[in-house]
Structure formats: structure tokens, C-alpha cells
């Protein structure tokens, strides 16, 4: 329900997919849901994100979406760190209880969710308790730069015990110096070095479904040659799945600042790469095999097999499409913020679903 899958059967159909992308997503029937006596319309398959901002991020990625401002009224949860853990988790329990019986995807993201071991362990405990009372998570994913998993391996076991379906691990280049120019880890984080990163990947238990996420940039992976070198590198580490993401298309929806300017200057569109990988279905690039495409309400993916070793996904998305979907009455996404608000938006005070009585959590 989170996306729609279809395999192109002809070159013409594949071209239509690539040209129209997320516009081909067909909205699924919404489901009415009562929260605190008020009816909301929920998109089946929506995800719930407890925004991870216990501490400041230990990396400073040049493409960070949490630093993008839509307008002068847009507030950033990234700037409001969690100060009162007991109040925060008590409020989170209240919020989760409102969705008993409605299947949700759990998406742990925001800043760096593994940066504060105490917060993550408490979050996992809260999730477990909620599930025992009837809250349903049909998929659980954590998005991380790997820093805390490298320094606190017990977090990996905690994620497994909590039955997480996938760990999405960010890495933008196979050369640690180039990667550091993009992700800009605090230098006290061992994972900025390839030795620590490679050890983390190699030491992950087989039970972990690992997916590497590489943001395409002119500074880093920018063409098919560097992309295949990246795949060769991670194949040696035993990685079975990689997603190459184009930076989200802003289309003028965000104010000009250091981060939006960097995104536009360093953007690598996926269309030329797709044309090199599979220009036509009958003549793919050597080692590549088209599998299928997926359509979301603001993103489009193409899935491939590379050298019969790794599932490779190319993804592009549109913040303009995302914001357009958010203007409808249907809640597309649930985000729990550190001020206690549950919203249908990444802004902590926009599209309120369950507003907190007062801001006591920051």
C-alpha cells in the first residue's frame, strides 16, 4: 500500500514511466479514522515518524532536507531538541494509542536516530509496549548514518529484537575523503573512516536487512562509471541492496539558503543514468537487468539487478508533489515532533492532527 508496482512490458511503456513518474500514482481509497472525537481521512499505508532529534546531528550533510525552509513561517523540528524524556515518551504513548488497529509503517528518521543511545533504546521500548496494547506496525525501518551502530553494537541487537524490517544506511561515496566532503561527520565519529564503516557493514548479523542509500551528487557519485565502482565496493562487503537517490526536486518550493543552493548546484538527475543502464529493454547495459518500477505519491523508483548480485534502485522525488498531496484533506504521513504535536507535515505546527496542550517537551 505504500507504493504501486508495475513492470514495463515495452520501451514505450518504460518511457511513459520515466516521463510521468509519480504522476502515475493512483491514490488509494482513504480510510476515515476518529482521533479525540474528530474524524480524519488517512491514507492506507501511511508511515509514522517519531522525529529523531534527541541531540544535534553528528553529521552535517550538505544536502540535509531538515535545513530547508519553505517560507518565513516554516519551523524546523531539527532546531528543537528533546529536553524532557519522561514527558516526551509519555506523550508518544498517548499519540500511538490513538491508532490502535490501524496498520502503520514505522519510519525512524529525522536527524541521526542512533546519535543518542538512551533515546533510541527508550523509543524501542515504547514501541514494544504500544504493540502489546494493539498498535500495529506492519513495517519498521530506521534511516541512519551508522555512527551509533558502529560505537554501540548493542543497538543493532535491540533493533533485531524489536523486529525491524530494514536498516537504511547512508553512504555517499566509496572514497572516505570524498564522502566526508558531502556528509561532513563530526571527526570524533569513527564511521567517517572507511575502516569503521566497512567493519560495521561486514559485522552486521545476517538477520539484518541492510539497504545502502547513496545520494547522487556532482561532488560524489555522478555517472555510471563512479556508480559501478560504488557497487563493486559494496559487493565486496556483502551488500545486497543499494538505492541511488537523486536529491528531491524543489521546483522553487523552498527559500534560497546554503542548503537549497547546494542541492541545486550539485544535483545529478537520474534520467541520463537510467538511459545508460537500460536505454531500451532489449539492450540493457552489460550486467544490468530491469526488474520493475514503483510509483509513490511523490516519488518514482526503477529496480534492477546488477551482475546478479545486488538489487539496485534508482529514486527520484518531488517536494512540489509532496506538498501538493499535503494540501488535500487526506493525511499522507504522520510525524511526531518534540513539542508534543502529531502532524501530517514535517513542520511541527502545520497540518495538526493531535496538538499538544502546551509545549513542555522542548
UniProtKB/TrEMBL annotation:
Top-rank taxon, per record: Bacteria
Coiled-coil spans in chain: none
SUPFAM superfamilies: Radical SAM enzymes
Recorded GO MF terms: catalytic activity; iron-sulfur cluster binding; metal ion binding
Cofactor(s) the protein needs: [4Fe-4S] cluster
Keyword Metal-binding: yes
Protein source organism: Rhodocytophaga rosea
Protein's name according to its UniProt entry: Radical SAM protein
Annotated keywords: Iron, Iron-sulfur, Metal-binding, S-adenosyl-L-methionine
Amino acid at each position: 500500500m505504500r507504493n504501486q508496482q508495475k513492470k514495463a512490458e515495452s520501451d514505450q511503456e518504460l518511457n511513459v514511466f520515466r516521463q510521468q513518474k509519480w504522476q502515475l500514482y493512483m491514490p488509494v481509497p482513504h480510510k476515515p479514522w476518529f482521533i479525540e472525537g474528530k474524524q480524519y481521512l488517512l491514507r492506507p499505508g501511511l508511515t509514522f515518524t517519531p522525529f529523531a532529534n534527541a541531540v544535534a546531528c553528528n553529521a552535517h550533510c550538505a544536502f540535509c532536507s531538515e535545513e530547508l525552509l519553505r517560507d518565513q513561517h516554516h519551523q524546523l523540528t531539527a532546531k528543537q531538541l528533546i529536553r524532557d524524556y519522561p514527558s516526551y515518551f509519555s506523550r508518544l504513548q498517548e499519540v500511538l494509542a490513538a491508532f490502535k488497529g490501524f496498520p502503520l509503517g514505522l519510519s525512524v528518521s529525522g536527524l541521526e536516530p542512533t546519535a543518542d543511545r538512551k533515546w533510541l533504546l527508550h523509543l524501542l521500548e515504547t514501541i514494544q509496549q504500544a504493540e502489546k496494547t494493539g498498535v500495529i506496525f506492519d513495517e519498521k525501518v530506521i534511516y541512519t548514518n551508522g555512527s551509533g551502530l558502529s560505537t554501540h553494537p548493542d543497538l543493532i541487537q535491540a533493533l533485531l529484537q524489536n523486529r525491524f524490517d530494514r536498516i537504511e544506511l547512508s553512504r555517499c561515496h566509496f572514497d572516505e575523503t570524498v564522502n566526508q566532503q558531502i556528509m561532513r561527520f563530526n571527526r570524533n565519529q569513527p564511521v567517517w573512516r572507511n575502516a569503521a564503516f566497512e567493519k560495521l557493514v561486514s559485522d552486521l548479523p545476517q538477520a539484518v536487512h541492510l539497504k545502502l542509500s547513496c545520494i547522487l551528487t556532482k561532488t560524489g557519485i555522478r555517472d555510471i562509471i563512479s556508480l559501478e565502482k560504488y557497487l563493486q565496493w559494496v559487493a565486496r562487503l556483502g551488500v545486497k541492496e543499494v538505492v541511488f537517490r537523486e536529491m528531491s526536486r524543489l521546483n522553487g518550493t523552498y527559500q534560497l539558503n546554503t542548503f537549497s543552493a547546494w542541492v541545486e548546484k550539485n544535483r545529478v538527475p537520474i534520467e541520463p543514468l537510467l538511459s545508460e543502464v537500460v536505454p531500451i529493454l532489449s539492450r540493457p547495459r552489460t550486467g544490468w537487468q530491469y526488474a520493475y518500477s514503483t510509483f509513490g505519491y511523490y516519488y518514482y523508483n526503477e529496480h534492477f539487478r546488477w551482475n546478479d548480485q545486488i538489487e539496485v534502485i534508482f529514486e527520484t522525488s518531488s517536494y512540489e508533489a509532496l506538498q501538493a498531496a499535503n494540501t488535500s484533506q487526506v493525511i499522507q504521513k504522520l510525524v511526531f515532533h518534540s513539542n508534543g504535536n502529531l502532524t501530517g507535515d514535517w513542520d511541527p505546527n502545520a497540518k495538526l492532527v493531535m496538538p499538544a496542550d502546551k509545549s513542555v517537551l522542548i
